[in-house]
Specification:
This protein is of the alpha+beta class. It has three domains: 147 residues, ph1033 like fold (Roll), CATH 3.10.590; 72 residues, DNA Binding (I), subunit A (Orthogonal Bundle), CATH 1.10.30; 60 residues. The chain contains nine helices and 14 strands. The strands form four sheets. Strands 1, 2, 3, 4, 5, 6, 7 and 8 form an eight-stranded mixed sheet that branches. A two-stranded antiparallel ribbon has the order 9-10. β3 and β4 form a beta hairpin. α7 packs across α9. It is globular, with a radius of gyration of 22 Å. About 7% of the residues have low confidence.
Protein backbone atom coordinates (compact mmCIF):
# COMPACT_ATOMS: atom_id res chain seq x y z
CA UNK A 1 0.00 0.00 0.00
CA UNK A 2 1.12 3.56 -0.73
CA UNK A 3 0.28 6.95 0.76
CA UNK A 4 -0.75 10.05 -1.20
CA UNK A 5 -1.36 13.75 -0.57
CA UNK A 6 -4.66 15.30 -1.67
CA UNK A 7 -4.86 19.08 -1.49
CA UNK A 8 -7.34 21.83 -0.66
CA UNK A 9 -6.63 25.56 -0.48
CA UNK A 10 -7.63 27.86 2.37
CA UNK A 11 -9.35 30.31 0.02
CA UNK A 12 -11.25 27.53 -1.76
CA UNK A 13 -12.28 25.98 1.55
CA UNK A 14 -13.77 29.31 2.67
CA UNK A 15 -15.61 29.96 -0.60
CA UNK A 16 -16.71 26.56 -1.91
CA UNK A 17 -19.99 25.85 -0.11
CA UNK A 18 -20.36 22.24 -1.24
CA UNK A 19 -16.98 20.82 -0.25
CA UNK A 20 -16.73 23.07 2.81
CA UNK A 21 -20.04 21.68 3.97
CA UNK A 22 -18.80 18.12 3.50
CA UNK A 23 -15.60 18.79 5.45
CA UNK A 24 -17.41 20.62 8.25
CA UNK A 25 -19.98 17.83 8.43
CA UNK A 26 -17.19 15.26 8.75
CA UNK A 27 -15.48 17.38 11.41
CA UNK A 28 -18.70 17.54 13.42
CA UNK A 29 -19.22 13.78 13.09
CA UNK A 30 -15.60 13.24 14.10
CA UNK A 31 -16.17 15.31 17.26
CA UNK A 32 -19.11 13.13 18.24
CA UNK A 33 -17.41 9.84 17.42
CA UNK A 34 -19.72 9.03 14.52
CA UNK A 35 -18.86 7.38 11.22
CA UNK A 36 -17.52 9.84 8.67
CA UNK A 37 -19.06 10.31 5.23
CA UNK A 38 -17.30 8.88 2.18
CA UNK A 39 -16.95 11.21 -0.79
CA UNK A 40 -14.66 11.56 -3.82
CA UNK A 41 -11.71 13.91 -4.25
CA UNK A 42 -9.91 15.25 -7.30
CA UNK A 43 -6.72 13.50 -8.45
CA UNK A 44 -4.42 13.67 -11.45
CA UNK A 45 -5.91 11.83 -14.43
CA UNK A 46 -2.81 9.62 -14.63
CA UNK A 47 -2.77 8.79 -10.89
CA UNK A 48 -2.14 5.14 -10.03
CA UNK A 49 -4.02 4.42 -6.81
CA UNK A 50 -5.35 1.12 -5.49
CA UNK A 51 -7.98 0.16 -2.92
CA UNK A 52 -6.62 0.59 0.61
CA UNK A 53 -4.03 3.25 -0.23
CA UNK A 54 -3.74 5.89 2.50
CA UNK A 55 -4.54 9.53 1.66
CA UNK A 56 -3.90 12.71 3.65
CA UNK A 57 -5.76 15.96 2.92
CA UNK A 58 -3.21 18.79 2.89
CA UNK A 59 -4.50 22.32 3.53
CA UNK A 60 -2.49 24.89 1.53
CA UNK A 61 -2.47 28.63 0.79
CA UNK A 62 -2.52 31.53 3.25
CA UNK A 63 -3.46 30.88 6.86
CA UNK A 64 -3.33 27.48 8.52
CA UNK A 65 -1.43 24.89 6.49
CA UNK A 66 -0.92 21.19 7.02
CA UNK A 67 -2.76 17.86 7.23
CA UNK A 68 -6.41 18.19 8.30
CA UNK A 69 -7.84 14.79 7.30
CA UNK A 70 -6.95 11.24 6.40
CA UNK A 71 -8.64 8.26 4.84
CA UNK A 72 -8.27 5.32 2.48
CA UNK A 73 -9.01 4.78 -1.20
CA UNK A 74 -12.22 2.75 -1.62
CA UNK A 75 -11.44 1.75 -5.19
CA UNK A 76 -8.56 2.62 -7.47
CA UNK A 77 -10.98 3.16 -10.38
CA UNK A 78 -10.72 6.79 -11.52
CA UNK A 79 -13.93 8.56 -12.55
CA UNK A 80 -14.54 11.58 -14.75
CA UNK A 81 -17.12 14.00 -13.36
CA UNK A 82 -18.41 17.48 -14.12
CA UNK A 83 -16.59 20.20 -12.22
CA UNK A 84 -18.59 21.20 -9.13
CA UNK A 85 -18.45 24.97 -9.75
CA UNK A 86 -17.09 25.47 -13.27
CA UNK A 87 -19.80 24.40 -15.77
CA UNK A 88 -18.40 22.64 -18.81
CA UNK A 89 -15.15 21.54 -17.13
CA UNK A 90 -14.41 17.98 -16.08
CA UNK A 91 -12.27 16.56 -13.27
CA UNK A 92 -10.86 13.13 -12.41
CA UNK A 93 -11.84 11.82 -8.97
CA UNK A 94 -11.35 8.78 -6.76
CA UNK A 95 -13.67 7.61 -3.97
CA UNK A 96 -12.29 8.08 -0.45
CA UNK A 97 -13.49 6.65 2.86
CA UNK A 98 -12.48 9.37 5.34
CA UNK A 99 -11.26 8.25 8.78
CA UNK A 100 -10.39 11.57 10.43
CA UNK A 101 -11.18 15.26 9.90
CA UNK A 102 -10.07 18.17 12.10
CA UNK A 103 -10.41 21.94 11.91
CA UNK A 104 -7.82 24.01 10.02
CA UNK A 105 -6.34 25.46 13.22
CA UNK A 106 -5.62 21.90 14.39
CA UNK A 107 -3.65 20.94 11.28
CA UNK A 108 -0.38 19.04 11.50
CA UNK A 109 1.71 21.95 10.24
CA UNK A 110 3.46 22.00 6.87
CA UNK A 111 6.65 23.60 8.23
CA UNK A 112 7.02 20.82 10.79
CA UNK A 113 6.33 18.16 8.15
CA UNK A 114 8.85 19.66 5.72
CA UNK A 115 11.60 19.63 8.35
CA UNK A 116 10.87 16.14 9.68
CA UNK A 117 10.02 14.39 6.40
CA UNK A 118 12.21 16.10 3.76
CA UNK A 119 11.87 13.36 1.12
CA UNK A 120 8.20 14.21 0.56
CA UNK A 121 7.05 17.26 -1.43
CA UNK A 122 4.91 19.24 1.05
CA UNK A 123 4.00 21.98 -1.45
CA UNK A 124 2.60 19.86 -4.30
CA UNK A 125 1.07 21.57 -7.31
CA UNK A 126 -1.30 18.71 -8.03
CA UNK A 127 -3.37 16.18 -6.12
CA UNK A 128 -2.25 12.57 -5.54
CA UNK A 129 1.42 13.39 -4.93
CA UNK A 130 2.97 10.29 -3.36
CA UNK A 131 4.47 10.29 0.14
CA UNK A 132 8.07 9.04 0.16
CA UNK A 133 8.04 5.29 0.86
CA UNK A 134 10.62 5.61 3.66
CA UNK A 135 8.43 8.15 5.46
CA UNK A 136 4.99 6.50 5.21
CA UNK A 137 5.08 4.61 8.52
CA UNK A 138 6.60 7.48 10.48
CA UNK A 139 4.06 9.93 9.05
CA UNK A 140 1.17 7.64 10.04
CA UNK A 141 2.55 7.47 13.58
CA UNK A 142 3.05 11.25 13.65
CA UNK A 143 -0.57 11.86 12.58
CA UNK A 144 -1.87 9.46 15.24
CA UNK A 145 0.24 11.19 17.89
CA UNK A 146 -1.11 14.56 16.78
CA UNK A 147 -4.70 13.36 17.16
CA UNK A 148 -4.02 11.98 20.63
CA UNK A 149 -2.51 15.30 21.71
CA UNK A 150 -5.68 17.02 20.52
CA UNK A 151 -7.63 14.87 22.95
CA UNK A 152 -8.88 12.14 20.62
CA UNK A 153 -9.08 8.56 21.84
CA UNK A 154 -10.53 5.11 21.10
CA UNK A 155 -14.20 5.47 21.84
CA UNK A 156 -16.33 2.63 20.52
CA UNK A 157 -16.32 -1.02 19.47
CA UNK A 158 -18.74 -1.86 16.70
CA UNK A 159 -20.07 -5.28 15.68
CA UNK A 160 -20.94 -6.24 12.15
CA UNK A 161 -24.64 -6.42 11.33
CA UNK A 162 -26.24 -9.86 11.37
CA UNK A 163 -27.84 -11.20 8.25
CA UNK A 164 -31.61 -10.81 8.09
CA UNK A 165 -31.85 -14.38 6.81
CA UNK A 166 -32.86 -16.09 10.07
CA UNK A 167 -32.66 -19.55 8.55
CA UNK A 168 -28.93 -19.21 7.96
CA UNK A 169 -26.54 -19.45 10.87
CA UNK A 170 -23.54 -17.18 10.59
CA UNK A 171 -20.61 -17.27 13.02
CA UNK A 172 -20.31 -14.14 15.13
CA UNK A 173 -17.53 -11.81 14.06
CA UNK A 174 -16.50 -8.45 15.47
CA UNK A 175 -14.68 -5.39 14.17
CA UNK A 176 -12.97 -2.66 16.14
CA UNK A 177 -13.16 0.92 14.92
CA UNK A 178 -11.20 3.89 16.19
CA UNK A 179 -13.38 6.93 16.84
CA UNK A 180 -12.16 10.31 18.03
CA UNK A 181 -13.92 12.82 20.27
CA UNK A 182 -12.84 16.23 21.55
CA UNK A 183 -12.58 16.30 25.32
CA UNK A 184 -13.61 19.98 25.62
CA UNK A 185 -17.08 19.19 24.24
CA UNK A 186 -17.93 17.34 27.44
CA UNK A 187 -17.31 20.44 29.54
CA UNK A 188 -19.21 22.62 27.04
CA UNK A 189 -22.20 20.29 27.25
CA UNK A 190 -22.29 20.58 31.04
CA UNK A 191 -22.13 24.37 30.76
CA UNK A 192 -25.19 24.35 28.49
CA UNK A 193 -27.06 21.96 30.79
CA UNK A 194 -26.51 24.39 33.68
CA UNK A 195 -27.65 27.44 31.67
CA UNK A 196 -30.31 26.29 29.18
CA UNK A 197 -33.45 24.23 29.96
CA UNK A 198 -32.43 20.53 30.11
CA UNK A 199 -34.46 19.33 27.13
CA UNK A 200 -34.13 19.16 23.34
CA UNK A 201 -34.63 22.66 21.91
CA UNK A 202 -36.59 21.18 18.98
CA UNK A 203 -38.66 18.18 20.13
CA UNK A 204 -38.62 18.80 23.90
CA UNK A 205 -37.40 15.36 24.99
CA UNK A 206 -36.26 15.65 28.61
CA UNK A 207 -33.82 12.73 28.84
CA UNK A 208 -30.50 14.41 29.72
CA UNK A 209 -28.57 11.30 28.65
CA UNK A 210 -29.42 11.84 24.95
CA UNK A 211 -28.81 15.60 24.77
CA UNK A 212 -25.85 16.95 22.77
CA UNK A 213 -24.21 20.36 22.78
CA UNK A 214 -24.69 22.14 19.43
CA UNK A 215 -22.78 25.15 18.07
CA UNK A 216 -25.26 27.38 16.21
CA UNK A 217 -22.34 28.94 14.33
CA UNK A 218 -19.75 26.18 13.69
CA UNK A 219 -16.28 26.60 15.16
CA UNK A 220 -14.81 26.51 11.65
CA UNK A 221 -16.88 29.57 10.69
CA UNK A 222 -15.74 31.62 13.68
CA UNK A 223 -18.29 30.40 16.23
CA UNK A 224 -17.26 30.13 19.87
CA UNK A 225 -18.05 27.69 22.67
CA UNK A 226 -20.21 30.18 24.54
CA UNK A 227 -23.72 29.77 26.01
CA UNK A 228 -25.14 32.24 23.47
CA UNK A 229 -23.77 30.17 20.56
CA UNK A 230 -24.95 26.86 21.98
CA UNK A 231 -28.18 24.92 22.37
CA UNK A 232 -29.11 21.41 23.46
CA UNK A 233 -30.51 18.95 20.92
CA UNK A 234 -31.25 15.25 21.18
CA UNK A 235 -28.92 13.04 19.16
CA UNK A 236 -31.38 12.62 16.27
CA UNK A 237 -32.07 16.32 15.85
CA UNK A 238 -28.38 17.17 16.35
CA UNK A 239 -27.65 15.03 13.32
CA UNK A 240 -30.54 16.65 11.43
CA UNK A 241 -29.04 20.07 12.21
CA UNK A 242 -25.61 19.00 10.94
CA UNK A 243 -27.16 17.55 7.76
CA UNK A 244 -29.13 20.76 7.13
CA UNK A 245 -32.61 19.30 7.64
CA UNK A 246 -32.96 21.60 10.65
CA UNK A 247 -31.71 25.17 10.71
CA UNK A 248 -31.53 27.95 13.31
CA UNK A 249 -33.53 31.02 12.32
CA UNK A 250 -32.26 33.22 15.18
CA UNK A 251 -35.01 32.29 17.62
CA UNK A 252 -35.67 28.57 17.23
CA UNK A 253 -34.92 25.51 15.12
CA UNK A 254 -37.09 25.09 12.02
CA UNK A 255 -37.33 22.41 9.35
CA UNK A 256 -35.44 23.11 6.13
CA UNK A 257 -35.89 21.35 2.79
CA UNK A 258 -33.93 18.04 2.97
CA UNK A 259 -32.43 18.52 -0.50
CA UNK A 260 -30.79 21.90 0.10
CA UNK A 261 -28.02 23.14 2.35
CA UNK A 262 -28.77 26.82 2.99
CA UNK A 263 -25.46 28.72 2.64
CA UNK A 264 -24.15 30.84 5.52
CA UNK A 265 -24.59 34.64 5.22
CA UNK A 266 -21.06 35.24 3.98
CA UNK A 267 -21.67 32.79 1.10
CA UNK A 268 -24.74 34.59 -0.26
CA UNK A 269 -22.91 36.50 -2.99
CA UNK A 270 -20.96 33.42 -4.04
CA UNK A 271 -24.09 31.24 -4.12
CA UNK A 272 -25.95 33.91 -6.07
CA UNK A 273 -23.22 33.74 -8.70
CA UNK A 274 -23.37 29.95 -8.84
CA UNK A 275 -27.15 29.99 -9.20
CA UNK A 276 -26.90 32.65 -11.93
CA UNK A 277 -24.50 30.44 -13.90
CA UNK A 278 -26.73 27.39 -13.44
CA UNK A 279 -29.88 29.24 -14.46
CA UNK A 280 -28.10 30.69 -17.47
CA UNK A 281 -27.04 27.25 -18.68
CA UNK A 282 -30.46 25.70 -18.12
CA UNK A 283 -32.34 28.58 -19.75
CA UNK A 284 -29.96 28.63 -22.69
CA UNK A 285 -30.66 24.94 -23.24
CA UNK A 286 -34.38 25.79 -23.24
CA UNK A 287 -33.81 28.63 -25.71
CA UNK A 288 -34.68 31.40 -23.22
CA UNK A 289 -32.70 34.54 -22.52
CA UNK A 290 -30.28 34.00 -19.60
CA UNK A 291 -30.65 35.96 -16.38
CA UNK A 292 -28.16 38.48 -15.06
CA UNK A 293 -26.61 38.32 -11.60
CA UNK A 294 -28.74 41.34 -10.60
CA UNK A 295 -31.87 39.22 -11.17
CA UNK A 296 -30.87 36.82 -8.38
CA UNK A 297 -32.11 37.87 -4.90
CA UNK A 298 -29.40 38.57 -2.32
CA UNK A 299 -29.37 37.34 0.35
CA UNK A 300 -30.28 34.08 -1.32
CA UNK A 301 -32.76 32.73 1.21
CA UNK A 302 -34.47 29.39 0.78
CA UNK A 303 -37.90 30.92 0.15
CA UNK A 304 -36.52 33.46 -2.36
CA UNK A 305 -34.70 30.70 -4.24
CA UNK A 306 -37.81 28.48 -4.42
CA UNK A 307 -39.98 31.42 -5.51
CA UNK A 308 -37.53 32.30 -8.28
CA UNK A 309 -37.50 28.71 -9.56
CA UNK A 310 -41.30 28.57 -9.54
CA UNK A 311 -41.47 31.87 -11.45
CA UNK A 312 -39.13 30.47 -14.11
CA UNK A 313 -40.90 27.07 -14.11
CA UNK A 314 -37.73 25.27 -13.06
CA UNK A 315 -37.16 22.49 -10.53
CA UNK A 316 -35.16 23.74 -7.49
CA UNK A 317 -33.27 20.41 -7.14
CA UNK A 318 -32.27 20.55 -10.83
CA UNK A 319 -30.91 24.08 -10.40
CA UNK A 320 -28.93 23.06 -7.32
CA UNK A 321 -27.63 20.02 -9.17
CA UNK A 322 -26.23 22.34 -11.81
CA UNK A 323 -25.03 25.01 -9.34
CA UNK A 324 -23.31 22.76 -6.81
CA UNK A 325 -22.37 19.78 -8.92
CA UNK A 326 -24.13 17.27 -6.66
CA UNK A 327 -26.62 14.61 -7.65
CA UNK A 328 -29.90 15.07 -5.81
CA UNK A 329 -31.53 11.72 -5.05
Amino acid sequence: MSAFLLTVSNSWLRQESLRRDLLLRNTANFERGEELASFPWTVRHEAEMTAGDVVYLLLQGTGSRGIIASGRVISGDLKTENHWHQPGDEVTTVDIHWDTTVLPDEALGTEFLRDKYPRTNWTPRANSTEVAAREEDDLAEEWSTRLIRLGHRVHRTRRRRRSMDLARKTPKTYDTSVVIARSHMRAYRWDLLNIHPPFCAYCGIEDVNVLDAVHLVPLALGGESTPANGRLLCANHHRAFVQGTLKWDGDCFVVSAPWIQVPPPEADTYMAGQVTIALGCIMQERGDDPLNRSDIPVPLTLSAFVDLCCELKLSPPDVLDQALGVIID
